[in-house]
Design a protein that fits this description.
mainly beta, six-stranded antiparallel beta sheet, 9 strands
Length: 209
């Protein structure tokens, strides 16, 4: 095996800060005044009397209404930029680095599913769009970009019926990795490796006794 040494330049992401953050909040509240129905043709008040048979859940979908993973179904963009982020000191110590305020926006779609556990029948809504804005503090100086990668999404759907007035509350919990950094070119010393020739079979002489 032989090798020849060379210098290589590659682009790499220089990580400045990394935060694991959980967002929890209310997405939608659907209400009726008792004269109409939240789900067309379905009386939610009657369904609540059969909780062991029916349940309502939500799931992330794409623009076509097909089930999607969190990283595919939710897009994240930063509304601020490296020039607009404001600084915030964590404490009053002189050697403490300042954190920067970044405003992130998440957009996606979800559907509501009414499931009949007895028959297995499923009634689905049309895709419902949502937009979430949140603030995160991390070390992100001028020239850096802030990215958010969604790792998991959980929905909580709470139906209620009081005096024939129907309500459907949808809440979401999103786990994510938020990073700041920038692209840099780094120099590496490397070597191209060439394969050796195959060893020839050796001819051994055996002694006889």
């Amino acid at each position: 095996m032989s090798s020849s040494h060379q210098t290589h330049c590659v682009n790499a992401f220089h990580l400045y800060d990394w935060v694991q953050k959980k967002y929890e909040g209310e997405l939608d509240v659907f209400k009726s005044d008792g004269t109409d129905e939240i789900i067309n043709g379905i009386n939610l008040c009657e369904l609540l009397l059969q909780r062991n048979r029916f349940f309502i859940e939500a799931m992330i979908v794409d623009e076509n209404g097909c089930p999607a993973s969190p990283e595919r179904g939710i897009t994240t963009t930063e509304l601020t930029n490296s020039m607009m982020r404001t600084k915030k000191k964590v404490n009053d110590e002189d050697n403490c680095s300042s954190l920067y305020r970044a405003v992130m926006q998440k957009q996606g779609r979800y559907v509501l599913k009414l499931v009949d556990q007895t028959t297995g029948q499923i009634c689905r809504s049309n895709p419902i769009p949502f937009t979430i804005q949140e603030t995160v503090y991390l070390y992100a100086p001028t020239g850096t970009t802030v990215q958010s990668d969604v790792t998991s999404v959980e929905f909580t759907v709470t139906p209620s019926c009081i005096n024939r007035e129907q309500e459907l509350r949808v809440e979401v919990s999103i786990c994510q990795n938020v990073t700041s950094g920038c692209s840099k070119t780094i120099q590496l010393e490397g070597a191209y490796i060439h394969p050796r020739e195959e060893l020839q079979s050796s001819h051994c002489k055996h002694s006889h006794y």
